[in-house]
Amino acid sequence: MFVKKFKSDFFLTNINKNRNKVSLVFFDSDANSFKLYTSNVNRTFFRSFVAMDAIFQRNEIQLGATCIHTVQFPEFNPEEYLHVLTDSELDRYRSFSHIKRQREFIATRALRHELYGNEHIHYTPEGAPYIDKDTFISISHSGNMVAIAENHSFPVGLDLELIRKDIQRVMHKFLSEAELDFFDCEDATLVTSIWSAKETLYKLAGRKQILFSDELHISRVNDQWRGRIVNPDHDLLVNLDIFERNGIIFTLNSSRVEHVKRDS
């Protein structure tokens, strides 16, 4: 597992008299060099551009063929960052009434903006995100973190979950009888991990209307997590990686989904 934190120091070099053009020099600590940014933008946009580096704290986690890009953020005014949205995304943003959802949406698009520019995030009828590039992506958020996982080889499902101390109250809704017997269900972190694993399976299933307790199954042999998606005439099998960062459980598939036909 490889974790990388991004840092950059910004220096304002010039704002002309009408304040419509901004030149900005910043030091890229990864490349160990200075870079120049110049744009015909207003001062409000410039302040927002600089503030994004402080507001949205970005990291990368490399797991095999998958790279997870994360952004952590404090409370902020999402109205100040609408420039990271496309026109259609702005319409969708306006449909959210809760500021928490607005912040998650802005933070996700700010991360998208840095990774892919203005590339629009599309969604399949099943709700899976994709972009018009030669890569597979998955998006998740929890607490004050959003993440985009990308894999150039096979479809990926990512889920983030805050560890829930009261998750045992609802675990009967998503755990099978066998899972209730096999796992230590007194451990809230473990039960949250299984919930997260089943959310990842749901994203990989390619269909809706799934019963989590009956059609999504989790097992663990030694340190290897394994998921099984039950369909009428076949199963989908996949290996999973589950780990914790700062009180948030991360789950994603570490292998291709394997299609296994059942004997009739």
Q: What is the CATH top level name of the largest domain?
A: Alpha Beta
The CATH topology of the largest domain is given as Ribosomal Protein L22, Chain A
> What is the CA-CA span between the terminal residues?
41 Å
Low-confidence stretches: 1-20, 39-51
**Architecture of the largest domain, CATH level 2?**
Alpha-Beta Complex
Radius of gyration: 21 Å
Q: What percent of the residues sit in helical stretches (DSSP H or I)? A: 25-40%
The biggest beta sheet is recorded as: 6 strands, antiparallel
Helical stretch tally: 6
Characterization of this structure:
This protein is an alpha+beta fold and 264 residues long. The chain has 2 domains: 150 residues, Ribosomal Protein L22, Chain A (Alpha-Beta Complex); 101 residues, no CATH class. 25% of the residues lie in helices and 37% in strands. Strands 11, 12, 13, 14, 15 and 16 form a 6-stranded antiparallel β-sheet that branches. A 5-stranded antiparallel β-sheet has the order 1-5-6-10-9. Strands 2-3-4 form a 3-stranded antiparallel β-sheet, covered by helices on one side. A hairpin with a 2-residue loop joins strand 5 and strand 6. It is globular and about 55 Å long.
